[in-house]
Design brief:
Elements lengths: L2 H7 L6 H21 L8 H13 L4 H6 L11 H9 L5 H28 L16 H5 L2 H19 L6 H8 L1
Helix pairs in contact: 2-6, 3-5, 5-6, 6-8
Length: 177
């Protein structure tokens, strides 16, 4: 195979504006089910929302304080516990949960885009094929912290791949973060 035929099969470098437009359009499309159902039929989601409400209100609700005490610790899968109660100051727990879910979707697909860019050196629309895959079995279980963690892991992998040729100090510094 010649060099010309290999480059002919490579997808064209998509302009950033076009890619951003497609990303936002597809994100809006996958957000429709989330925005139209305040409590989506996810197995563990209602439990997450209840926990978020308790975390957000236990400090000034004596009835909840009788039964619950928040003990923070450095353990995995706490992103929703950190973000949603803060958002609940400005919106109710349902809207905060919707924002968190859509942000998790955006993070996963953006991580896929960033990883593709790190591996192939150009922005491509191909990673946008991840959008329909967001509604999968893991999501239907409702493990929202894990879903957010997938997006973070994709971004970390993209950073690692991007720094692979810069010597050992940069990747180690990124890994420490």
């Amino acid at each position: 195979m010649s060099l010309r035929s290999a480059s002919a099969r490579r997808p064209a470098d998509l302009g950033r504006r076009s890619l951003v437009f497609l990303f936002l359009l597809l994100l809006a499309l996958v957000a429709v089910p989330v925005l139209t159902h305040p409590v989506p039929p996810l197995s563990d989601y209602a439990n997450h929302l209840a926990r978020m409400h308790i975390i957000a209100t236990v400090s000034h609700n004596p009835d909840l304080a009788r039964f619950y005490h928040i003990e923070w610790a450095v353990i995995p899968n706490l992103m929703m516990d950190l973000v949603v109660p803060l958002m609940e100051r400005f919106a109710n727990v349902y809207v905060a949960g919707e924002i968190y879910t859509i942000a998790s979707f955006a993070l996963i697909v953006f991580g896929t885009l960033a990883l593709n860019r790190a591996l192939f050196g150009l922005w491509s629309a191909t990673p946008l094929l991840a959008f329909p895959l967001l509604y999968n079995g893991i999501f239907l279980i409702g493990v929202m912290n894990y879903i957010f963690g997938i997006g973070l892991a994709l971004l970390a992998l993209a950073a690692w791949v991007s720094l692979r040729e810069r010597g050992w100090r940069y990747p180690v510094a990124v890994a420490c973060v």
